[in-house]
Amino acid sequence: MTQARELPKIMYRRMQHADIPGVQDLASRTSKSEVAWRDWEDDALLRRLIDAPWTMPFVALADGHIVGVVFLGDTGTRLLLNHLCVDPSARRRGIGQELVRCALKEMYQISPVRHVIALVRGNNPLGMEFWQKVDGFKDETVCDDIHSFCMDLDPSGSPWLTD
Q1: Angle between the 20-28 and 43-51 helix axes, to the nearest 10 degrees?
Q2: pTM (global) more than 0.85
Q3: CA 137 to CA 140: how far, in whole Å?
Q4: In the chain, what are the domains?
Q5: Averaged pLDDT in 10-residue chunks for the chain of 163 residues
């Protein structure tokens, strides 16, 4: 049995322009069924997403290397989580959930929307498994190709909004 390598302390923060190559490298090391978004390769688009007031890309770093990323967008009525990606060698250690929590907490300070949706392609079994296990999210899928996992945030006691 192979033991998972020990990761250093993980730091979570908003994505910066300097993170683009690391995010692109992470996406390139992940299977295409998990990261179906081809725009990872478009530097100009990633810069616009970093700068846009309605999006909040977040990264997880271990020793300065990007081991996770998530994009969170504000539609005005709900927050949309998509393109969650964690380095295959760093999975099943809580990085994905903490990345989501940090992004939700910070975005909620800017836009206190109470409904959150995470979209997952039907051909992404790891993504499906992740969101099925995340506390508070319910599968409200309306078609087989795209699954939507939804959660209502309670500002008075949501564990997603507190430390």
Answers
A1: 120
A2: no
A3: 9
A4: 10-161 (3.40.630.30)
A5: 64 95 87 61 88 90 93 84 87 90 84 82 83 84 75 67 64
